[in-house]
Design goal:
heterodimer, A: 889 residues, alpha/beta, Phosphorylase Kinase, domain 1, Rossmann fold, Dimethylsulfoxide Reductase, domain 2, 6 domains, six-stranded mixed barrel, 34 strands, 31% helix, B: 411 residues, FAD/NAD(P)-binding domain, Enolase-like, domain 1, 10 helices, globular
């Protein structure tokens, strides 16, 4: 060990979305960690979003799984690995290789992913390895392969800045890929000719950037883009030379596209013809077009068709693989792309080779020198958990993901895990909704501890480097998988000692008998040693040889990876998807929010990320709410054919009538009943197997309760005895929203909730006629907890109250100020936090906006809000707009 | 030609009346004052700080001798009026001085209620009314012995606190179950009781004095339950009565106090009464705010000015005991239409209660923190509809006017 004097700065990569931002992490000798954007990383050039900026708040050891556990008892690694290896081996011996499965994650590093895929497909001999990328990327993969013969993202991030028209389809880029959004926003400011079109059933904050916003009907995308293809053809906007030279299947595609007609397109998209024509004209007239798409496209029963509908338009105009032109799928996970490269999906083999192709199988088997090779696609995520449920899968290993919260029909997934004879879960946390069902819990190393590579949405491979010591008995996933493989008798093929060796083997396989036949080729790194791996700079693939360029694009030369090297048009016939019914008349849409990520296992630890939206909610149109007796801030009961949940009603005209939105993040660790995936039926895209998580028939009703509550408290309570609760981290403790269907003995309830010891000092407020009751407990350190109760949704200054957990109460008379639930007039009330980085609230912004600051920039100068990560800039603009204070331009 | 104005009594009410009168009608009257006390007008409210030693007498003087001279007032100090002859418009003092008047103002104040129990005339049994009483108590306090205060009202508690600060061992005896029951609800009364105990003052509630014991000097008090509380000094602070004997003798209409109309005129139109001795519409008053209001009205009457007359209003009570902040106004009785808001912090010693009827404040008790007393008083006086500020009402003025809180977390 070197002496730890001062700080050490490590270049690494953010573990959240697929933008793949470079991060400079400093761990000081006293244990403090600082995180900032890497100014030299070509994804972000020093910027970080709110989530990335708060990474240092997410790496404490609270709740970490620090040692292996078998049936809940702590075990040593030898025992745990032996048990996993012997149980998998025995199950395979007794029931065949198809009786076991791995369910892995786009958060694994490429090296982890590679080893898992190799073990399953080359040594166990089944393709029963699928990944949570199935839930976000599979339709793009399938669409790419249908059109290009390979899973290739043709462009790079610079295209966002070089384009004259950027079309965002089903993408809330501002919240889900904030740094890309900011690059786009910055480019648009410097290039006034640039136009932005946003296509989304929801008027998200991203639409603030739009010159044209298309409030498309859910799943109207195939219609919109087939309509576009027909219109381009009818208005001489095609590149016939390109079509003839580099594509096949155009005629059939055009015939299908023309079958519907503009009126039909208008009906299926829910868009007026004028709006359609505005978009079509703009698209036709602009040669440098980038179409960016994300989950609104992928997570659909017609997801693959949507992808191909978009690709068809780019192929027909030859707008692909050129600077500022091309289709662009942006990924949701830090290493979804890396997983695709190693072949970690049940219908792929390895290194962009196909499982159905005997030559590919032969090649991979020879490279791996493996005893077997999977010869047919394995079970995709939804099928896999069905097979767990019906007993076909008898041993399952889940790594770095939380399917009980994220799979459709999540309650059935939970039941399947309960019934499965052997479940192994590798994770960083001791308690997740999935970990509850683990027979063997394996403590994985986390971000900041792990060492390897990830690939972002523009095919850029970057290093994740460790800057923290691995705590307890935690180990990297590649090590855990290799140890199990060795114990299953495959020691020769899994003798890895470092991630560098694995990366070199992965690079070698990508180049093995390739010679330009496959898109994925990083052969230049096939002999990389540990030292060079340590220093590896971010690079885009392909990199087959030393002389390849730093920035790359595919298909500019018109050469695709199909047998005839021509791109394929896909003939598509759009059709209306009708899911709603009299019982479930609303369309439920799900997705991410700005400051949380996935199932909150990391972001849920951060006070500043938890304050932006501290509660699960259902966004719905005020008219739909009124029709159901749902009032502002009431509790909403959302039901579908598969389940129900209870969340806060957020009334907003951003939501179209007839549709509702519930975020995907909340789960049993953070709320009483908010796992939205439990409401989603297992409807999947027939080609990609990706679940349709954004088009579910649903109904909403008001949940009538007797008492609403809001509490802040220093220690997280053991249990929450309430009919509704949602808990969020704040500085110095926790904040909880509560609701009760019956009255309780409130003083007792509060005492129990806060775990008060004798000698705790109590302040109370009672307005019995109005049903208002408040309790606050103090000890020598300050506020222990405060509970506010009311028959209506509790109206207190939540952020201010939560802040008081960290306040000193030098005079006991200050207790009374706390129970007021808001600051006095001598203290400014910030309101709900908008800017997480600087803790600036909506009321502050509104006040300054009313004075004279009428641009986002001016607000930034005055309050700093929006000047760090910038994730909140659209929200700041919305606040300015809401006060009608935009300067006349 | 100037008229002759004669005033019986030189307390705070007639002092204030003269200030107004000299403003309204300068030079109209020759003024003569007879004061039973041998001194100028001083601030009686400050007697408690004088007793406790936090102020001295000089700091309490409102009108020094110079003021009387400047305004041409003849002040007879230490003259008690013994007779009013309304026929001749003449009054006579116990020292044989007579004066005739065109207008007479009676401001004889109040007298302490002396418990009709054996021993009430023993040496060492005092009342708490004026500077002489304070001086007597201070003398007794020098013995550092044991004092008993009978009466746990405003006056008794101030006396008890003052004596305790002077080093005496003090017990308060109170007939009712809780202290200051006329001004406080039971909860605040109990908080006050424990605050006094914390300061070292013994309090016995539901304590019915049966007799004052002692041969020549007081030695103790016997309670109805037989308990004997030793004492070397007894202060009677069990209430006051309007001092209306002189008026009654003069055949003016007297009820509990001297009956006056809203312009402070007695049954004899040339005679006015004001202060604690006066009774208007069945009410008598002991707190300074309504007395000053009477002074203003009386001055207007004497000056022949238009006045809307005296209007009854609730007056807040404040206890002048250092370290105990207490404010109270209005009505705390339970009632069908009455609602209340209660704020309590035992460790901080804070209790606040607001009584509401038809969205109006009708009573307020503030204990431990009284900064907002004036604000609550104003809300009550103006009968402000508080429905819109109900949620922040009890937290006081500095919580008003903010942006309404949105119950939405996910905004």
């Amino acid at each position: 060990m070197s002496t730890t004097t001062g700080t050490r700065t490590v270049r690494t990569t953010c573990p959240y979305c697929g933008v793949g931002c470079g991060v400079l992490a400093e761990a000081t000798s006293d244990g403090a960690v600082n995180v900032r954007g890497d100014p030299e990383h070509p994804s972000n050039y020093g910027r970080l979003c709110s989530k990335g900026s708060a990474l240092a708040e997410t790496i404490d050891l609270d709740g970490r799984l620090l040692a292996p556990k078998i049936d809940g008892r702590t075990a040593d690694w030898g025992e745990a690995l032996d048990l996993v290896a012997s149980t998998f081996s025995r199950t395979i011996a007794e029931h065949g290789p198809n009786s076991v499965a791995f369910y892995v994650s786009g958060q694994l590093l490429t090296e982890d992913y590679y080893v898992a895929n190799k073990l399953m497909k080359g040594f166990i001999g089944t393709a029963n390895i699928d990944t949570n990328s199935r839930l976000c990327m599979a339709s793009s993969v399938a669409g790419h392969r249908r059109a290009f013969g390979s899973d290739t993202v043709p462009g790079n991030y610079q295209d966002f800045e070089l384009a004259d028209l950027v079309v965002l389809v089903g993408s809330n880029l501002a919240w889900c890929h904030p740094i890309l959004y900011q690059r786009l926003a910055a480019a648009r400011q410097t290039r006034p000719q640039m136009r932005v079109v946003v296509i989304d059933p929801r008027r998200t904050v991203t639409s603030e950037l739009a010159d044209l916003y298309l409030p498309i009907s859910t799943d109207g995308d195939v219609a919109l883009f087939t309509g576009l293809l027909a219109w381009l053809a009818d208005h001489a906007a095609l590149d016939h030379g390109y079509i003839a030279a580099h594509t096949s299947g155009f005629t059939e595609a055009l015939v299908s596209a023309r079958a519907v007609g503009l009126d039909g397109i208008a009906r299926q998209t829910g868009l007026p013809i004028e709006t359609l024509l505005q978009f079509y004209t703009l698209f036709a007239a602009t040669s440098k077009v980038v179409t960016v798409y994300s989950q609104g496209v992928n997570q659909s029963s017609s997801g693959t068709d949507k992808v191909n509908a978009i690709l068809n338009c780019h192929l027909a105009t030859g707008r692909i693989g050129r600077p500022g032109a091309g289709p662009f799928s942006v990924t949701g996970q830090p290493n979804a792309m890396g997983g695709r490269e190693v072949g970690g999906l049940a219908n792929m083999l390895a290194a962009h080779m196909e499982i159905e192709n005997p030559a590919h199988r032969d090649r991979v088997q020879r490279f791996w020198r493996s005893p077997v090779i999977a010869d047919k696609p394995g079970l995709k995520a939804v099928e896999m958990f069905r097979a767990v449920a019906d007993g076909r899968i008898k041993a399952l290993w889940i790594m770095a993901t939380n399917p009980v919260d994220t799979m459709p029909d999540a309650s059935a997934v939970e039941a399947a895990l309960k019934s499965c004879p052997f479940v192994v879960v590798s994770d960083i946390l001791a308690e997740t909704d999935t970990m509850r069902h683990a027979h063997v819990a394996l403590p994985a190393a986390g971000w900041g501890e792990k060492d390897g590579t990830v690939t972002n949405s523009e095919r850029r491979i970057s290093r994740q480097r460790p800057f923290l010591a691995r705590p307890g008995e935690t180990r990297p996933d590649w090590w855990i998988i290799s140890q199990v493989a060795r114990r299953m008798g495959f020691a020769n093929a899994f003798g890895y000692e470092s991630p560098a060796e694995i990366f070199a083997e992965h690079a070698a396989l990508s180049a093995f008998e390739n010679d330009g036949a496959r898109d994925f080729d990083i052969g230049v790194y096939k002999n990389i040693d540990r030292e060079a791996f340590e220093d590896l700079q971010p690079f885009q693939w392909p990199q087959p040889r030393q002389d390849t360029p730093a920035e790359t694009r595919f298909f500019g030369d018109g050469q695709f990876f199909t047998p005839d090297r021509k791109a394929r048009f896909v003939a598509l016939t759009p059709a209306l998807t009708q899911r709603t019914s009299a019982a479930f008349p609303l369309i439920l849409n799900t997705g991410r929010i700005r400051d949380h990520w996935h199932t909150m296992t990391r972001t849920g630890k951060s006070p500043r990320l938890s304050q932006h939206l501290a509660e699960p909610f259902c966004e719905l149109h005020p008219a739909d709410a009124a029709a159901r007796g749902v009032g502002h801030a009431d509790l909403a009961r959302v039901t579908t054919s598969h389940g129900a949940l209870t969340v806060r009603a957020l009334l907003s005209t951003r939501q179209a009538r007839g549709s509702i939105f519930v975020p995907m993040h909340w789960n049993d660790q953070f709320a009483s009943q908010a796992r939205v995936d439990a409401l989603i039926p297992s409807i999947t895209d027939p080609v990609s197997g990706q679940p349709a998580s954004k088009h579910i028939a649903a109904q909403v009703a008001a949940l009538k309760v007797r008492n609403f509550g809001f509490a802040v408290l220093r220690r997280r309570p053991q249990a929450l005895d309430a009919d509704y609760w949602a808990i969020a981290k704040c500085n110095g403790g926790w904040r909880i929203e509560l609701a009760f269907e019956r009255d309780r003995e409130w003083a007792d309830f509060a005492t129990k909730l806060f775990g008060c010891s004798p000698g705790t000092e109590l302040s109370t407020y009672h307005d019995r006629a109005n049903g208002q009751q408040r309790f606050a407990f103090f000890d020598s350190r300050g506020l222990v907890g405060a509970l506010f109760l009311a028959p209506q949704p509790v109206a207190v200054s939540r952020d201010w109250v939560a802040e008081q957990l960290g306040s000193e109460f030098t005079d006991r008379r200050m207790h009374i100020g706390l129970i007021a639930g808001r600051p006095g007039n001598d203290v400014p009330d910030r309101g709900a936090i908008v800017c997480s980085c600087f803790g600036v609230g909506a009321k502050q912004i509104a006040a300054v906006a009313r004075s004279n600051c009428r641009t986002v920039e001016a607000i930034g100068v005055k309050l700093q809000a929006g000047t760090n990560c910038g994730s909140c800039r659209s929200e700041i603009k919305a606040i300015i707009d809401a006060h009608n204070l935009q300067p006349a331009e | 030609m100037t008229e002759k104005l004669v005033i019986i009594g030189n307390g705070m009410a007639p002092g204030r009346m003269l200030e107004h009168l000299f403003e309204y009608a300068p030079g109209r009257y020759d003024v003569t004052i007879f004061n039973a006390e041998p001194r100028v007008n001083y601030d009686r409210i400050m007697l408690s700080p004088v007793l406790s030693g936090e102020k001295d007498y000089e700091q309490t003087i409102i009108h020094g001798d110079g003021w009387y001279i400047r305004n041409g007032i003849v002040l007879y100090k230490g003259h008690k009026i013994v007779a009013i002859d309304r026929a001749t418009k003449t009054i006579t003092s116990d020292r044989g001085v007579s004066a005739t008047y065109d207008k007479l103002v009676i401001a004889t104040g109040s007298v302490p209620f002396i418990l009709p129990v054996p021993g009430n005339d023993l040496a060492g049994v005092l009342t708490y009314r004026d500077l002489d009483d304070v001086n007597a108590m201070l003398l007794a306090a020098q013995s550092r012995a044991k004092a008993v205060v009978i009466g746990g009202g405003l006056l008794g508690l101030e006396a008890a606190a003052g004596l305790q600060m002077r080093g005496m061992d003090v017990t308060v005896l109170h007939l009712m179950p809780t202290l200051m029951e006329r001004q406080l609800d039971a909860a605040a009364g109990r908080l006050l009781e424990s605050a006094l105990r914390e300061r070292g003052i013994e309090v016995r509630t539901s304590a019915n004095t049966k007799a004052i014991l002692g041969a020549k000097r007081v030695e103790g008090i016997e309670l109805a339950d037989g308990t004997v509380v030793p004492a070397t000094l007894v202060v009677m602070a069990a209430g006051i009565r309007p001092n209306a004997g002189l008026a009654k003798t003069a055949a003016l209409t007297v009820n509990r106090g001297i009956v006056v109309d809203t312009r402070m005129r007695t049954s004899d139109p040339d005679i006015l009464a004001l202060g604690e001795c006066a009774e208007i519409d069945g009410h008598t008053y002991g707190l300074v705010a309504p007395l000053y209001e009477m002074a203003k009205v009386a001055a207007a009457t004497l000056a022949g000015r238009e006045t809307s007359g005296f209007v009854h209003s609730e007056t807040p009570t404040k206890l002048k005991v250092t370290g105990i902040d207490l404010f109270s106004i209005g009505d705390f009785a339970d009632g069908e239409d009455r609602q209340d808001i209660v704020l309590r912090d035992v460790s901080a010693g804070v209790y606040k209660r607001v009584i509401i009827e038809n969205d109006r404040v009708i009573g307020t008790v503030l204990f431990g923190e009284t900064l907002d007393g004036a604000w609550f008083n104003d809300l009550q006086k103006r009968a402000v509809n508080i429905a819109g500020i109900r949620d922040t009402l009890i937290f006081g003025q500095s919580y008003q006017g903010g942006i309404p809180q949105d119950p939405m977390v996910a905004a």
